[in-house]
Automatic annotation (TrEMBL):
This is Transaldolase. The gene is tal. PANTHER family: TRANSALDOLASE. Its EC number is 2.2.1.2. GO terms for biological process: carbohydrate metabolic process; pentose-phosphate shunt. It comes from Parazoarcus communis. It is found in: Cytoplasm. Pathway: Carbohydrate degradation; pentose phosphate pathway; D-glyceraldehyde 3-phosphate and beta-D-fructose 6-phosphate from D-ribose 5-phosphate and D-xylulose 5-phosphate (non-oxidative stage): step 2/3. It comes from the Bacteria. It holds the Pfam family TAL_FSA. One of its GO terms (cellular component) is cytoplasm. Belongs to the transaldolase family. Type 2 subfamily.
């Protein structure tokens, strides 16, 4: 049996971390959905830069947009919003069939708004209206300003993919913002069952940074290489279980609110010494999402080993985190550095993207 379909049987959704007109026009995304059970799509500025810069299907539309008296960002949005709408439409039957639990496509607000809560809220509402699909997720970073915007967007009934999380501190802060947003929505008489949110925890970048610190320490510290990210994810899932399947969420759940699913992001293995499925096989469990780049999707289909693994070895995960702390590796500080780096990388990608659409 296709391992991608076996993952679905374990209660985890596989989303594709890619979108382009090549995937849409040539039927690849439709086949991923029909044959591999792909249940969603995520995008970011780097993905759209690659798509527009290398995709022949954008040339005519971009040339026409450059003849219009509009800005580079408006041209970018007019290029990609139809792609997002088409992906949403492909996934809409799954969205309906799952009563809103599956079938989402993410579109990110401008990375330049990472420190602007009001601007993020305005952009999120505008993009939601422009795409006009029930299965759109507005993607917002887990920055300090982003947390405020997340609460406000959820409170306004907007579904959100929270991105650029790298630590348990980020996980807890984002979940709290989601719950506050649901409380706002309920207090305003809104329908909390209409809102979906996922919390995207980035993994490979955690190991890249922590491994570097471990290698500088040497000796026994080397035994912890390649363990920080999976340990963080497994403990994050325990936090998720306690928060969203415990008494504190019971009233919202009774009103129809959904848990904020954990999403594993940055799941392409960067270290060639590690398994190409390091951030997939150990993290399979119910009410989670794993968003995979094309190469990792192919690897899982080809040789993935599937089981309900996410709650295995939780004690070892905690021991790994304790071991890192004993070595004075501060995982919250790691998370803050990686988030700052990630915001900078997305800003650079967005700047390059706007160069493509500028006059």
């Amino acid at each position: 049996m296709n391992p991608l379909l076996q993952v679905r049987e374990q209660g985890q959704q596989i989303w594709l971390d890619n979108l382009s007109r090549t995937l849409l026009n040539e039927g690849h995304l439709a086949r991923f959905i029909a044959e591999d059970g792909v249940a969603g799509v995520t995008t970011n500025p780097a993905i759209f830069y690659k798509a527009i810069a290398g995709g022949r299907y954008y040339e005519d539309d971009l040339a026409a947009l450059k003849r219009q008296p509009i800005g580079a960002e408006a041209r970018y949005e007019q290029l990609v919003i139809p792609d997002v709408q088409r992906a949403c439409d492909l996934l809409l039957p799954l969205h309906h069939e799952s009563h809103g639990n599956k079938g989402y496509v993410s579109l990110e607000v401008s990375p330049d708004l990472a420190d602007d809560a009001a601007g993020t809220l305005e952009a999120g509402l505008r993009l939601k209206a422009a795409v006009d699909r029930p299965n759109l997720l507005i993607k917002v970073p887990a920055s300090a300003a982003g947390l405020k915007a997340i609460e406000q967007l959820i409170g306004a009934g907007v579904s959100v993919n929270v991105t650029l999380m790298f630590s348990l501190a980020h996980v807890d802060a984002v979940a709290a913002a989601y719950v506050r947003g649901l409380e706002r929505l309920r207090a305003a008489g809104g329908d909390v069952s209409s809102v979906m949110s996922v919390a995207s925890l980035f993994l490979s970048r955690v190991d890249t940074l922590v491994d570097k610190q471990l290698e500088e320490l040497g000796g026994e510290a080397l035994a912890l290489r390649g363990k920080a990210a999976v340990a963080t994810a497994r403990l994050a899932y325990q936090h998720y279980r306690a928060r969203f399947h415990g008494p504190d969420f019971a009233a919202l759940q009774a009103a129809g609110a959904r848990p904020q699913f954990m999403l594993w992001a940055s799941t392409g293995t960067k270290n060639p010494d590690y398994s190409d499925l390091l951030y997939v096989e150990p993290l399979i469990g119910p009410e989670t999402v794993n968003t995979l780049p094309d190469a990792t999707l192919d690897a899982l289909r080809d040789h993935g080993r599937v089981g309900n693994t996410l709650e295995q070895d939780v004690g070892l995960a905690q021991a790994a985190m304790d071991g890192l702390a004993a070595l004075s590796i501060d995982m919250d500080a790691v998370g803050e550095k990686l988030q700052a780096d990630g915001l900078h990388q997305f800003e650079e990608a967005f700047s390059k993207l706007l160069e493509l659409t500028a006059d």
